[in-house]
Amino acid sequence: MTSLASVAAPAGPVGGSRLGKILVYGVLLLFALFFLLPLFVMIVTSFKTLDEIRDGNMLALPVAPTIEPWIKAWGEACIGLTCAGIKGYFWNSIKMVVPAVAISTMLGALNGYVLTKWRFAGHKLVFGLMLFACFIPFQSVLIPMARILGLLGLANGTPGLVLVHVVYGLGFTTLFFRNYYEAFPSELIKAAQIDGAGFFQIFWRIILPSSGPIIVVTVIFQFTNIWNDFLFGSSFASGESAPMTVALNNLVATSTGVREYNVDMAAAMFAAIPTLLVYVLAGRYFVRGLMAGAVKG
Fold this sequence. Notes:
Blueprint: H1 2-8, H2 11-46, H3 50-53, H4 68-75, H5 87-117, H6 123-133, H7 142-152, H8 158-182, H9 186-194, H10 199-207, H11 212-228, H12 231-236, H13 244-252, H14 261-282, H15 284-294
């Protein structure tokens, strides 16, 4: 009797645990569907004709799907006085985000390396000031940045935007790498110094090859912030040098002609695709990299 009771006893908690998991996954699925609903509306609207959109059923699938809105958004839509689509502005964003992400990530890695393995007098103060810079509102630095870009001759162009995003993102990238390198064994650095390795040799051959997870975290974070930025793009660039977000705003907010919602949604999807691809391809390493930097040895 005792053995039978002991075997049958766990059945209750197991059943309760299974029910709890079903409820949790059900709630998560409900929230996921709610969160993805705007994306679904954007996609289906971008494949509809204007007549079908005017019927008013946003959630309905396209009766006669067409890629014409995508073609028009890419190469024919009017943005301001120019009717050449968003392709030029899309490449402006690519030319801005790639060097800005690469430079800010590399400088953040160097800063994190120095602040953890080559500490100097006042390194805590320097790190504190850089950390403080992460919390400065964008709006408060617009006028000083505009003044500096004017003095450097980089105003109203992509190089100026690259500089702005590198400077503003440096505090975040330094924070990521500094926390990650804090757990890196200092004994390896000392052993390399004994073998005659210098500052950059240690960085390139030891530190950087082991920084894959945090590099992925930093690239995703910086890419998303820079690609989706509107304030700096609208403040420090205009006309044909504007990034994708500014062009998209000008396209959607236009008050002339017929409102082509399908073209607007297709343009918005073009703007969203790069960040979606980054998360799909590297998203599984994001949490892994954050957790690796959170563990202190």
